[in-house]
# Entry
Amino acid sequence: MFVGIGYDVHRFVEKRKLILGGVFFDHPLGLYGHSDADVVLHAVSDAILGAASLGDIGGLFPDSDDKWKGISSQILLEKIMELVNGKGLIVNNVDIIYIAQQPKINKKKKEMEQRISEILKVEIGRVNVKATTTEGLGAIGRSEGAAAQAIASLVQK
# Structure
């Protein structure tokens, strides 16, 4: 078994769609980034890349390359899964925590788990999404942005 952790954070801005875990949220602010800034999928991507010893998302898809500008994080994660599967590895499970004051994700948590399961090609029970706030502390507590952490385990095919 191979284990990796991932973390990502982005600030909130106006005039951007908010995508979390591959799911659209109707929210007045979106997250700023070179891609669609899906902090949940970015954390999952780095956790999987770490477990497979394949570097990190910024190394594979640098923000200095306009080829990746505005790209869906789902597409990036699909490309990562091709690399991981090419090494003879598959995802065993992923545990994710979304860290933000807003938006609340509870109503879409199952949809997020379903979408991530589809991208990773694993049973839905192998993906867990949860959330917490920072109790008003720091930049995230002031609703200036959102973060996510993930841990992934991989096994040989």
Summary: The chain has five helices and seven strands. The helical segments are 39-51, 57-60, 73-86, 109-120, 138-141. Residues 73-86 form the longest helix (14 residues). The CA atoms of residues 66 and 91 lie 29 Å apart.
